[in-house]
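As described in the Methods, two query proteins were run sequentially through the folding procedure within a single session, without resetting any intermediate state between them. The first query and its resulting structure tokens are shown here.
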Amino acid sequence: MNRLKLCLVLTLAAFFLSPLATYSVLAAADGDCSVDANGYVNEVAAGGNHKCYVDMQGAKITWHALYLCREQPSLATHRDTCEEIFYSTTGVQVQFLPGTTTNLPTNSDVSLPVGTYNYAVTKVGKYVHDKMVLRFSANRRGRTGTGTFCWTIANREYVKTNRLYSKSGVECGTEADSLAAGFTYQNSAYIVLHGNNLANESTWAANSFGKTSKSHKVSDDTTLYTPIGGFVGTCPTDVETFTDTGNYTINMQQLITPAVITPDTKTIQFSMGLTGYGMVSQRQAGDGSGARCPAGGADCVIALRSKAPEFKVTVY
């Protein structure tokens, strides 16, 4: 095997699947939020837990490991069969913002065999931190306020299965108020929902790129996290905090374009998608349990969060 010690710079960036504007959203298709002539979101909250998708303004994660793999990896063997590019026991918090690039410290040169890599494996911390500010065409209710601007509340935990507006990680008000927007942290307790239950791993399935991916909640590099109550845990409903989260998430993803490493390769850029990755979850006023979004007022925004992190790797 032709193994070269390459002086690679590992960089992090945000990537976009369409141009980004101040309130950019995608065309109304496949669940993307509808907008009016001004570009303001006018998606109607039909019933409870209504979702549509927009762009995110930023994301933060705690990065623990990055691998490139020639063949489809597995949780049990990925550390042996894939090439380690970055590993940190304590983790490094990294931030993805539109139009920015940041070096991820590797502490040394990266030794990587020349060849073609078709998969990437990432190990990240248990929380995904999301930042979004969104303008609606009519008033919406957030955690305590009402207005046409809604935003993520800095340092507020968001539990995916919460449906109460009063326990959300979203506030609404005026444009001036929205300047307080920060990164809320999403408690991605488990990977998938099965009815009222949550699992600690998914199956290989097609992602937004038409490639395959798989995720695991783990307690270390190769051990699946065991939820409260055994292999499958009960879904926490309408709670503000949830501690049963596992320690890390390991994501395995087939690359859109294989990463071809040659003796001339100098940079590996690892990018996180923001365009179209912001989930807007709304509840119609008076729908279902009145406490979730009481009647007699504006519809409620229950969540502004990333629908799922997806990545791509580019080499130079």
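Immediately afterward, the second query was submitted; its sequence and tokens are:
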Amino acid sequence: MNRVLSRCLLPVIMGTAILAAGCATNQDVKTAQATADRATMQAEQARAAADQAISAAQSAGQKADQATTTAQQAQQAAGSAQTAANSAQTAADGAQSSAQAAAASAEQAKNEAAAADERVQQAQRRPTRNVRLARGERG
């Protein structure tokens, strides 16, 4: 019988101990609920902060896209300005070549005019002969 009692009584004693240890007081339940409420509030605040961070990141991404677009437009404008500058340089080089050719032509014309003047002066210095030529003679 002792054996039967120990087999039956032992589980009852252990079950009572577990039941007594597992029960919480009203104060314990309130404390646990307050802790759970605080954790829920902190989680909601964390979610709001995360939403704000996402919004700020999206805004920063949009600003970065705008900055990239502006930079590309500036790059295109700089390329156009470079092309215009190259065209202006080419035109200036052409104008300089034309000016040099005109100066060379003017110098040549001046030299030709001087040579013509010299020929005229030489022609004026020659004495004219009043020589009568016979028939068929050339002078």
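The mean pLDDT is 82. We note this only descriptively and draw no conclusion about the first query from it.
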